[in-house]
Every structure is written in C-alpha cells, then in structure tokens.
Amino acid sequence: MAPFIPQGLINPELSLFFALILGLGFGYILEQAGFSSSRKLAGLFYGYDFVVLRVFFTAGVTAMTGLVFFSYLGWVDMNLVYVNPTFLWSAIVGGGIMGGGFIMGGFCPGTSLVGAVIGKLDAMVFIVGMFLGIFIFGHFYNAFEPLYTGSFLGNPFIYETLGMSKGWFALLLALMALFAFAVTQLIEDKVNKTQPSDMTKRPSYVVPAFLLAVSLLLFLFLPGERSSSYRETGPGALLQEWQSGSHLADPQKVAYDIINGNDQVLYIDLRAQEQYQRFSLPGAVRISPEEVLGPQWRRFFRNDPRQKVLYGDGTSLPARTWTALRRQGHQNVFVLDGGLNGMFDLLFMEREDQQPHGDNGYMNAFSERFIREARQFFLEGGAVKAAESRPVPVRTMIEITAPDIAGGC
Amino acid sequence: MKINTLNNGALLLFALIMAGLLFNAVFSKNYGRSNSAVLEAAMEEHFFISYGELETLLFPANRDQNGQAVPKGMDGAVIVDLRDPEAFARGHVHGALNIPAREVLDRKHRKALRGNNQKLLYAGEEHVAATTAMLLLGKGVEHIRVIPGDFRQLDEHLLHAGKLDPAYRFLRDDKARFDYPRFMKVAPQGPQEQSKTPAIPEMKVISVQGGC
User: Nearest residue of B to residue A240 by CA position?
Assistant: First the structure.
C-alpha cells in the first residue's frame, strides 16, 4: 500500500503539497517539544535536560516499531522506502561538525528553523552561518568531493552488518532506549539536584514501555515472511478455476481477435527479449515472468480493463505465470491454450485426419473455413495491417524505480 | 507531552498492530509459502527434472551400463501421476502413485506428499503438472519437481523403449517448434517499432528521494 506516491495512490504532482503539510506537522512537533530553545537543546551536553534524547529516541523507536509491523503486514513496501546511503568519511566528519555546531549554537538545522520562526535571534544567526557553510561547501565542492563521496558503503542496515535478525535488533534497540531514558533521568536529577518529593510526582511511563516491549517480543515469534494475504485467491478456488479450464484462451478466438483488431485484448509475451523482438503477436507487450509480481506491474494488472492473454512457446510458462497472478488476486488474465506452438499448429499445419462432418459437422466446416481464411490472412501479412489499424490507447503507465541516491537532512 | 497523550498514542499503535495481525491471521488464505517464493522456485531450471535424470532413476540397468549414479537427492523419490484413475489404469510409470490433480489438496493425500523425499509430478499435459506443483509448493510441500512433457511423450521417448531417445533428453513444452515469422508476418517488436502500435505508449518513471 504505502509509500503512497511511488505506488501511485497519490498523484506525484501533489507531492510538494504533502511535503508542506508534513513539514508543518514536523515543525509544530519540534516546537511543542521545546526544541525552539537552544538552552533546552544544549542541555543534553551539559546533563541538565535530556529531552532531545528522549524525543528523538521515542520517535525513532515508534517509527521503527511501526515500519517493522507495517512492512510485515504488507502495508508498507520497504523496497520503495528511501534509505540514506553511507559515505563513511563524510558521515564521520559531518557528524563531528554537526555535534560541534550543536554545542556552540544550541541548534541543529531543523530546530534552528523552528527557533527562527518564533523569532529567536540566535536561531536566525545560526541559519545565516548554516547557509554560509553551504555556500563555502558548494563553492569548493571539487576540493571536498573526495571526502564527500569517499568510502561509499551502499545502503547497509545495522542489523545486517551485525549479522542479527531484524526482530532481535528492533527489540534490543527498544530496550537500549528504555535503559537510556532511565539513566539520563538519573543524571538529570543529579545535575538539577531534584528533590525526592518532586521525583514521586512524575508520571509513570510503564504502559508505553510495556506495550513497546511486548510488541517487539511478539515480532520475534512471527515467521520471517508472510506466506499469504487476504487479497490472494485461496488454493481451493485456484485449483477449481484451472481445473475448469476457464482460464484458457482458444487459439481460434485469439486469431479472430487479431484479424478483427480487437483492442479489448492485450497479449503479453513471456518469452525472452530476443524472441519477442524477432516475433510477437500484434500489439503484444513483453513482461518477464519473474517480474510479474513486482510493484511496477501490480497496478497494471489490477486496473487495466482489457483481457490479458499470456503466451509463450507452449502452455507451461504462461500457466505458471497465470497461477502466480491469479493467486495474487488479479482477474481477467488468460493463457493462450497450446501457446504459439499450438496456435501455429492449428492455423498452418494441414491435417490429414480431418474431423468427419457428424453431429458437429456444421461447426467443423465453419471452423475449417475460418482456419483456411485466417491462414491466408496471416501469410499475406494481414497481421501487420491489423496491428497498424489498432487504435492507440491513451494510457500512462507509472514505472516505479528504486530511489536515486540523494537527499537527507 | 502529557502522559495521557503518550499512553493513548502507545495504546493506539499497539491496538493497530494487533488488529492488523489478527486480520492477517483470520483472513489470510491457507498457504504455507509466499507467492513470490513459489514463482521464483517455478521459474528455476531445477523445477523440472530432465529425461536424462529420469532415465537414471527409472532404469537402473541403463544407469549401471552407463556408469552413472542415482542423481543427488533422488533416493526414495516418489513419482506422482496426476491424471484420472482411468488414464492411470491404461498405463503409467512403474511404481507411480496416482493422485488426480483435482484431489491434490485433499486431506487423504497429505501423508503421501509429506516427507523430505523428492516428489516428481507428471500429468496428461506439462502445464497441469507445473500448476499443481506450484499449488503444492504454495501449500508448503517441499521437494517438488516436474517431469516435462505429457505422458504420451514420456511413454514414447523413454518408457516404451526402456531407453531414452537422446534427442529428447531436454524435452520441454516451452520450446518453439515453428519459425513463427515465416508464417505470420508482423512488424518486429523492437524498441523503435514498438512505438508504431504501442499498447502502453507512455511510461512515466518516478523515483523518490528525500530523507528526514
């Protein structure tokens, strides 16, 4: 389901509008958490106020718990979620500069904007300094480039680097956060010389901590990958459907549709690219069978109203692809019975054992006449004309690609 | 943040997660393996057993004569005939078990399909065996492979003579038997030609960037 924009659930042209809404929400929360005050922010380094650690750790652990479960439930496609790439040297140097700036200025880039918006002069000066730094970096980029792009490690996840499972890492990080909250509270009390009577008036955080730990403990017992979802077609229904043969497209009907330029049928070639380029049915598109379940085709199979006829050289490859597509819940998908081999055998091979004109004699004669005419049509290049006369559908496909490496805070 | 807000937020997230897991447990279809994992297995070369391998399994005399060994992991392999009992009665692979394709999900056959031994499926048509194999893989049955071709081909090229016709060692349903362009003249579907009759004329590529 999510992320909404790459999945096409939200118009990409509205992305800036949603960026504005989310930005407003983010700024509001930062301000409400007290992050417009440099004293509060710098308190982390002097030990008198750890609210920065608590807010960011809480936000991180909440987001992590949500993502862990939502991706498991199929609500978020983690392949489409942007992950910051790791450039080791620039991360170390940049982290050092940001930490130093945080101690001296009392802001980080985001909180300085929050402070400036409510009229804090020191925040405005901080922003000027930040832009000055950006300008210097941009101007001398060539000199900084080896450092900036040095030691690129890709997009590693910590749990992969540590050789742990995602579930164990999430649980340990949550426990680490709870431990950090307790320890920083002790430090804060010691530095601020808090009276024991004031300590007892504090609210208890047992409920959220307990729910967090229970959720992540539960995740450890879930299977690594969900084996099915509610959208899928059940095994019994799937078996019944293909046993009935209703998914098979008759080659004569396919030939008829090609001859008549039926634009309500789309042929999907599942063979290798070179075979497709050498020959394919008129108007066919090629989809690699390994990729049919990918996000780039999900919307197409779900929303395109045309009948989609899968074909290969035989029936086996399209039948396997059909099984996966039908199990995923896509409808209006068919398999060319016999594949191209079967269709060409029917249309172009002379038969000695013609069916006798018995009870079905009229139908057989009709069928034979159609095959003769279709053969003539295709041998004379009629398929080329039929393909050219097909109306061009006005349709925009959205192909989702993995995000580029860019961005960050 | 007031503690009530925090507690309520935590409870809401917890309730959402539990509701999602409950919904998933109740409404998910009865599969034991994910669809993508099944498709990946079905597209592998190993999904099919070649007639060459099958010969070494079915005809020990040929195997000894050629100095071959039983293919790896094939000891105790079970051959499953997916055709109707009538077709099975007319002829089948020696020692094959008859489980009609329409009954593969029945409880009575569960025991036969359990275990770590290889299960080699064949049917009247290759696509029936392949689809059944995918269904069984989806149900969580392990070590399923498909004997390519249909029973007629299997009988003709291997069983009947008791020796494999080498021309059919790698027989598969998905092999072109025609030089298609000779019969049906169509505009070749290259990247340039595709624009003449585009089924999907516009492709919009969206990549997402951002960070915190």
Answer: B102
